[in-house]
Amino acid sequence: MSNHITLLAIESSCDETSAAVLHHGQIVSNVTANQQVHVQYGGVVPELASRAHQQHIVPVVAAALQQAGKTVRDLHAIAFTRGPGLMGSLLVGTSFAKGMALALNIPLIDVQHMHAHVLAHLIEDPKPPFPFLCLTVSGGHTQIVHVHSPTNMQLIGETRDDAVGEAFDKAAKMLGLPYPGGPLIDKYAQQGNPLRFTFPQVSTPGLDFSFSGIKTAFLYFLQTQQQLNPDFIAENLNDICASIQHALITILLTKLRKAARQTGIRHVAIAGGVAANSGLRKAVAEMGQTEGWQVYVPRFEYCTDNAAMIAMAAYYKFLAGDFCGQDVSPLPRMAF
Q1: What's the confidence (pLDDT) of residue 173?
Q2: Is the pLDDT of residue 38 over 70?
Q3: Helix, strand, coil % (nearest 5) of the chain?
Q4: Was domain 2-119+303-319 assigned CATH 3.30.420.40?
Q5: Which helix (DSSP H) or strand (DSSP E) does residue 56 occupy?
Q6: Rounded to whole angstroms, how far apart are CA atoms 142 and 87?
Q7: 309/121 Cα distance (integer angstroms)
Q8: What are the pLDDT digits (tens) for 153-203?
Q9: How far apart are CA 155 and CA 168, in angstroms?
Q10: 3-class secondary structure, 149
Q11: pLDDT tens per residue across span 202-259
Q12: Which CATH number fits domain 130-297: 3.30.420.40, 3.40.190.10, 3.40.50.1240, 3.30.70.580?
């Protein structure tokens, strides 16, 4: 039966509307509509995001089915992101999935968004063997996950305040860079000296992270330097970006190395939107060589929010017979 499953998956946790079709355990289409409306506001506006999802979801689902060469009659189940995420955004995807599953009289599968980021590693080869460690880094989350199997994961470290992706974007905003600023910091950092400026690192117990302190230190650093030289940012942008990026990545890798040594696991993966950062990819690869790890990073389109990862998580839930009822509702703060 597993070889004949065809699933439609919907992702709408934040500001990407995405649909994917999985067939024979393989992703056969993955369509995503981005929302440009948030750029002028310097961040995602929840109300505008949910309206944009309503506009995008029908054409995105239609395109995913068309690209896969499937019709709704071919589907065995419909999967959707239940949480965590923005309530209005999640509600659009959940409601659409429930209505479609009801009309077709097929099962529903609810997916935890962060589980799906981890399972993005199973979309394409090379796939990490179990068990593996996954550093999941995004605008909303920073987590270290001990992955025992596709349906058995243990959260062993997480941020106690802000996510690393938010720290990147806030730092970019302080520098006057447009939203989303994280990729721009990465771009300018490639031309700068990462050791030019140093920022204090907050010590946290165990494998947990903290990024609020470094954001505050960065703000005071910029204010002090600009009082001495109003053109400080413009004259030192590359070095500033390289230095703050280096500091944030160092915090991540210090804990990741600690987790790998504690667990004895040598297969290490990174996932989530910040996994697209070239500085992080390079640093993890270098640490992997030093520590004797095998490192895994998904393709860029599977790092950012996408429905292919939702489909992959749903596939394993389908095999386990783990479905949800029509009484399901979104959970913006859904537990790991």
Answers
A1: 93
A2: no
A3: 50, 20, 30
A4: yes
A5: helix 46-68
A6: 20
A7: 8
A8: 999 999 999 999 999 999 999 999 988 888 999 999 999 999 999 998 888
A9: 23
A10: strand
A11: 889 899 999 989 999 999 999 999 999 999 999 999 999 999 999 999 999 999 999 9
A12: 3.30.420.40
Say how far apart CA 86 and CA 91 lie, in whole Å: 8
Weakest mean pLDDT among 77-86, 126-135, 271-280 = 271-280
pLDDT band at 52 (very low <50, low <70, confident <90, very high): confident
CATH fold match for the domains 2-119+303-319 and 130-297 = yes
Give CA–CA dist 146/129, Å, rounded.
Answer: 12
Give the pLDDT of residue 63.
Answer: 96
User: What is the per-residue burial (b if ≥16 Cβ within 10 Å, else e) of 43-61?
Assistant: ebbbeebbbbbbebbeebb
Q: Are 155 and 135 in contact (CB under 8 A)?
A: no
Give the domain ranges of the chain: 2-119+303-319, 130-297
Please state the separation of Cα 64 from the chain's center in Å: 21
Q: Cα–Cα distance between 243 and 187 in angstroms, integer?
A: 13
Check: CB of residue 239 under 8 Å from CB of residue 221.
no
Residue 135 near residue 270 (C-beta atoms within 8 A): yes
For 105, the token pair is: 């009289």
